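Co-fold these.
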Amino acid sequence: MSFIQNIINGILLGGIYALLGVGMTMMFGIVKLTNLAHGEFIIMGAFASTLLAQALGIDPIITLIITVPCMFLIGMVLQSVLINRVMLQGSEPALLVTFGLSIILQDAMLLLFTADARRANVSYSTTNIQLPGGLYISVLDLVVFVISLVTILILTIFLRRTYMGRAIRATSDDTVAASLMGVSVRRTYGIAMGIAMATAAVAGLGVGMRWTFYPSSGGTYLLIAFGVVVIGGMGSIPGTLVAGLVFGLAQVFGGANYGLLVSYILLIVMLAVRPQGLFSK
Amino acid sequence: MKKTAASNQRNVRIIDGIPMLIAAIILVIVLAVIGFAGSNNLRRILIKVFIYCAMGSMWNLMSGYTGMTSLGQQTFIGVAGYTVALFTAKFALPFAVGILAGGVIGGVLALILAVILFRMRGMYFAIATWVIAEAFKTFFTSWGFVNAGGGMTVAGRPDREVIYLMCLVLAVASIVVIYVLLKSKLGLGLTAMRDDADAASSVGVNIFKSKLLCFVICGVFCALGGGLYYLNNVSIYPGSGFAIDWTVSLVFIVIIGGIGTMSGPIVGTIIYIVLDEVLAQLPAGWSNIILGLIAILVILFLPDGIMGTLQKKLHFELLSQKRFSGE
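Predicted complex below.
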């Protein structure tokens, strides 16, 4: 029975893992940027939701109305002012700049919010839905799972159905052709970064609801996000979803002590054997 | 534009040869004397300078000359630190055996990791090195034999003068090794490989062999540096030995000093250690913010770093690996 329970938990964990990776896969696929600050963006989102919910006395989920637009704007500004500029110098300086950003953000959060452990409190954090055969589903995990799926779904519809979404996909496929067709590449990059930050805001909410977090937690989530991106294939959103589930299951079956290690080894093997991912274009 | 750039290059003065050698020997002798005559505080700072200089030069060799940007040199540092602690505290062997064993293990580890890592290029390589370091950190945090998350303590730490001299030797050795390596035929191949791997391999550069040699040398020197650091520091934890902070420092040193220049990491190390000492007086957290900001500004406005920009502006090259004054 614990085998089935593990599968349930693994799938629920996989949902949030997919969401962690979705912003990063967009940056890879569209902007061709390895964003090493994505983990810190997620933790920023976690702090924003947790602290806003506390201050206003509202459910953390409602804080998304504020955090998502704010993070979108920060992302756009960051891309237009800083990263677009550095990317002209090549991919390695850009990689190192995002690395610098991650250090700055991590320590800025440490100064602002101290090193204390935080968590977004919700009334249903310990409630379980009982299933036959002694199985159960944690309501909290289920809520986070649903939020993740809805976010990924909205993003997919946006990229498929809207003009901006098509422009973004066109830029991702062929930058030169897209710019000849009148797409402003720099602006598209800004919007892509904005969207990536917005998904980080939602992912941060999920992280804050499920786990205690610290200003220094970014690295862990960056590596999970990177794992999801690599296994799923750069830039593939459906791939991210499957990879999230694979990663989540691997970690649940690895157990409390070695779960993370099993995920890391899975990632390294994947990088060595099939770096283009399961679902690359 | 191109023409002036080319004619500028022909006027590059290469500061090299016997005068440079004499100056270097005098500098090393002075530094060795400071080890015995200087104050404890100066010794403490210079030990850090030597260790970071060795590691920074090695990171520069990998990233600046062979195009392998590693974010995971802390794997070798941590493993060597634990080797020293295990050999001295658990097996009661002399510290020198621990340091040397750390170096050997670092080299072997580099050989093994190369099998996996050399299938990747660019950012895949960078992230994979980091993931490996994190995997080691996670493993050591749960591994009972090395006392898990509780960390270990080195036994039989020698006098600080002895550690100082060993660190000085390490720094000098690393610079000499890199200089000789880059001056050799292999060095030319490496630089060609960094600029265009496919073209280099088509004119007969054995990419795999050259990269492997560099990676193993870097692994050995980072391990020796890590061993000496933790011999001096006495205690090691999985969270400190395998910390990404090591990479942060090395990247900073090389970017500030000038990536792909021999003298860059040396200048970068001095700036880094001085900044680190000054910023340590600020409340915790500020130092990394300021270091991060400086690094980003340098990448934006001085992409060649301090030495790279100076050399371009003033038309000289220190410790050049070039064999002809014009290209």
